[in-house]
Amino acid sequence: MADGKHGLPFFLLVIVFASGHKFLQTYIPNGERVSSPCDDSVWEGVGHLHQKGGGERNSFGKVFEAEGNKWTEKLCREDSDGDGRSNGEELGDPNCVWSFGKEPTYSQNITHPGICEPLNSTKCSNATFECPKAWSCPAINQPDVKTISITTPSTSVPARPTTYICYNKKIPSDQLYDIVASTTVINNTNVLHHMTVYGCNGDLPDGLDGTLDDCSMRNEKCSKILHIWTVGLEDFCQADYKAFRFGKGLTTWVAIQYHWNNPQLRTDYKDASGVQLFYTPKLRPYAEDIFQTGDGAIYIPPNSKDFKVTGLCSHDCSKRSFAKPFNITSILLHMHGTGVSMWAKQYRNGELLRVLAEDNPYHYTTPVIHRFEEEPIEFRPGDELKVECTFDTTGNNNWVINGPGTMDEMCVTLISYYPANEFFMEDCFSVKGRCGKGINDIAPGCNYRSLMPNLNTLMPDIRQHCDINEGNTCPSGCADIFRWIKYLYPNCFQNQPKAVSNFIWASLLPTALEGPSQGHFVNAFKGCVLYSPNVIRSLDYHPPLM
User: Are 189 and 101 within one domain?
Assistant: First the structure.
């Protein structure tokens, strides 16, 4: 599962969920002083069921969103949680006179406007809220279990909306170990959007242990997902018969990928988050791993309702990808904000065998892991996996394309399985009947490795000649650049079916998002390939670099 620079599109590896924006606390009176009804702590995600924010909204959060994330008189006077007190009374603005930046009428005894309290009172007897139970994992108390905590040094968060950064760190590799549990160390809830821990094989180059980079080190060597966190997901405790395995001959270092979200462009934020791994030398019966399937090239036209895409691990691809039967233990379906429904289905001999997972409706802010650990599902070579996604971009006048950003889209499912290391390939994708995990498989003859460096050299010309602000026009100079790309790489764009060419473009876009020209190539692509396809269809070209 390498990133786009090394064969597999980067966006297929990134788990991107919406998180609560803590700065929204300042948009309501006493937003930073709301007490938890469960204990004496502060309920940071006032509009969410999850205390830290993110995930499903509570009754107050739904009205707050409907009011445009603003403190209005309607929101103030409403009793969102039905406890007999208005939202204004609970938040210290009983007369509904507060406005942004002003002091509330009072700031003591601030209660939660989205959770009926007191919890055990008669008036709250019909409320469904329950205080979260403390995370528990008996395995971590076993005498053979060791712990390693990996956190990045306190690091300044760039003043830009989205940042991806990786922290590289060696882990024990003297023998094989199994991870029985993993917990997340959260340092700054204002910016941490999600975090993924990748296990990497081979040696970490000298001098790079304990360093941060732009994730360029997270290449094809870093193919194992060991831990995932986003707001709304609990810490993880493995079933006693399986575990993620690392150590000698397998994973010897990790690259922790952080997604920082800083929509306010603040310059004073820092983060030092990370992960705690509980591991043992007593190996479980089975090693577990994760593979992916879905649609690797999504292009949703403006104002599209019920726009459907399908990702397929076909019969032939399944036979090629999977050497032996395996057992599915969990499934995570993933789209972004315009996704409305999603399914993962298993077929055998052309017949639907079962619906593996269904999120209908799909809620981007509420990630759901469908678990089958007590009764794992058998999957055989030759079985088909079909992923179906439906999107709604009504009201959006721009194209929506695949990518890791929250304004982009995905249609991918992550499947946990055992036994691990039984696959010929780690992922299973099909494009126009072609199987593969990257460009070399999907588009034989496309010299993708040389395409990327040449694309980077074109970035100054793209910035100069393309409409980088709107991405909905294709000036002549910009069209020349895309004609030049097509001319230089006919086996990527001219001699391939449209679906394959789209897959290649899709592989380029997320990579372009990572560099200093963030967004430039993406908008240029939208203007010349999506909005004005006829402009670059001609093979007549004028090399922009001559």
Answer: no
